[in-house]
Design goal:
The protein is an alpha+beta fold. 20% of the residues lie in helices and 46% in strands. About 14% of the residues have low confidence.
Amino acid sequence: MNTTRLRRLAGTAAAVALLGAGALATAPSAVAKANLLTINKVSLNASGLQASVKYSCDTGMHHQLVANATSVESDHEESIAAGTIKSAQLTCDYADHTAQVKLRAATGSHFAKGDTVKLTVFYFDDEGFSYAHRTAIVVL
């Protein structure tokens, strides 16, 4: 090979490498953000509790967002509540979204202002697996 041909080949390889690096830099950071949960706020509502949850999930995922609450150190019997957002109601596109999960209190359960509540949120998939568990203890 002559030097001119080697220079052209090296120049082409460098251009391809730069284009590839540019495409990688502009690609969404999907893997780093997917399937995350953050509990933003827990409050009382008419049927029990409501939780504001920030979520991010992979495209093509078919799972539910589940929230379970239990009273901690209250003046009355232990109370529990649960809520679910079905997969069709979740937007799974790697971006962050906020969902309002309404938790219905179980029969006989009661939550009041000042109660300490342990809230756990997680994803539940079609095969029965749960993952991305996040827990917060809050005072209502």
